[in-house]
Structures are given as C-alpha cells and as structure tokens.
Amino acid sequence: MEICPLCGGSKKKGCTTYSVDLGFGIVVVRQVPAQVCAQCGEEWIESETAQKLEAIVERVKSQHNEVEVLQYKEIAE
Ligand SMILES: [Zn+2]
Fold first, then answer.
1. Do β-strands 43-44 and 67-71 pair in parallel, antiparallel, or remain unpaired?
2. Is residue 64 part of a domain?
3. 4 C-alpha vs ligand 1 centroid, how far in Å?
4. d(CA 13, ligand 1 centre) in Å
5. What is the DSSP string of the chain?
6. In total, how many domains does the chain have?
7. Span from the CA of 2 to the centroid of ligand 1 (angstroms)
8. I need a surface site. Which of 6, 29, 44, 67 has the fewest CB within 10 A?
9. What is the residue range of 53's domain?
10. 64 Cα: distance to centroid of ligand 1 (angstroms)
11. In the structure, what pLDDT confidence band is assigned to residue 15 with cuts at 50, 70 and 90?
12. Which residues contact residue 33 at a Cβ distance below 8 angstroms, ignoring those fewer than 6 apart?
C-alpha cells in the first residue's frame, strides 16, 4: 500500500475527473482511474493513464467542440 506524501494517509484505487481547458473549449474525462488518498482526497493519475488522456485530448482538439465530456472507459480501451 502506498502512502500519501502530503498527509501520511493511505492511497487507494479510485476514480477522478480529469479536465483541461484548451482555450476554445474544455475537455472533461470522467471515471479516470487514479490513486486517491483516503485521508485528504489528493489524487494521482498513473503515467500510463496520463498518456492515454493526452491522446484523447489531442483527438478532441481536432474536433473543436466547445465542451466535450467523455467516459474514460469508453475511449481508452
Ligand atoms: Zn493524503
């Protein structure tokens, strides 16, 4: 079990919502797997997951929608 560097609580598998502002619009990805501190609620996204999010953002950028809300599960696998 990993320990939270901020508060010393334990990290647990959970989900977070990732959002990024592209200037012309925003991308929101829901249900992103992450490590979440049980005590303070800080979240860490693993590098493999972060890479997938980057690819998703690149794809969305080319579509130029003002708001794009996605479910991680539906686009990452
Ligand atoms: Zn913590």
1. unpaired
2. yes
3. 5
4. 13
5. --B-TTTS-BEEEEEEEEEEE-SS-EEEEEEEEEEEETTT--EE--HHHHHHHHHHHHHHHTTT-SEEEEEHHHHH-
6. 1
7. 11
8. 67
9. 16-33+46-76
10. 36
11. very high
12. 13, 14, 15, 45, 46, 49, 72
The pTM of this model reads: 0.84
Q: Which two tokens stand for residue 10?
A: 């334990």
Contact 11/37 with Cβ under 8 angstroms?
A: yes
> 43: CA distance to ligand 1 center in Å?
9
The number of residues in the chain equals: 77
Query: Does residue 69 belong to any structural domain of this protein?
Result: yes
Q: What is the pLDDT of residue 12?
A: 96
Q: pLDDT tens, 33-59?
A: 999 999 999 999 999 999 999 999 998
